[in-house]
């Protein structure tokens, strides 16, 4: 008699749901995320990654970068353009196929994550490890951080970007900006599935269109715990920056008025002791 499969844990169910959703939206991802794919954010991101690469002290050329949760290739595109060799990694085969098609070449390889750990990757394999808008999708994000530190070579750098800053839920100036600085997205009223998701949020206020996320005042990543975890892996902070994320529906004049007065997003860069 065939052995019955063990029931999935809650975390495994969350990962499976995230994979299914991201496989489905892979080809539309960039159209859905104007807060990522806009000129201001892409310019900031390119400069941030250049700074991170300049901080690598492993001595290897070209540096080998690991794009953890690569999605449609946002970081991968920049890292390749900046001269790095890149391993683009994601749980979604749909995203990996898209990245291979877009950027395939001798400096790119892809790696399908197992949704649990990075045990298939040896210690110290990479000169730079970068993750962008990913940790809030991972139920045990601290274990993920331990793994990111482990696979980084001595003198190598870890970049954690596009995660909510501590001020995101508490700053009254930010709340003022959100109230006054946004344009109405009329397209959302023409998308039938938005009404389905809206109904689901009546019963579960934390329901998200794109899988399980942890971006709520009572359920979010904690930067102090990340710092402790990375420190345990021999990493120390070399740069930390809070910034106001540019979104496609923001009024540009309002964004320019508020960008130096408030923030909602953080990037932190760590370097591993040699």
UniProtKB/TrEMBL annotation:
Domain Methyltransferase type: 67-160
Top-level lineage group: Bacteria
Pfam families, alphabetized: Methyltransf_11 (PF08241)
Keywords tagged on the record: Methyltransferase, Transferase
Molecular function GO terms recorded: S-adenosylmethionine-dependent methyltransferase activity
InterPro entries in the record: Methyltransf_11 (IPR013216), Methyltransf_Superfamily (IPR050508), SAM-dependent_MTases_sf (IPR029063)
PANTHER family: METHYLTRANSFERASE (PTHR42912)
Protein name: Class I SAM-dependent methyltransferase
Source organism: Sphingomonas sinipercae
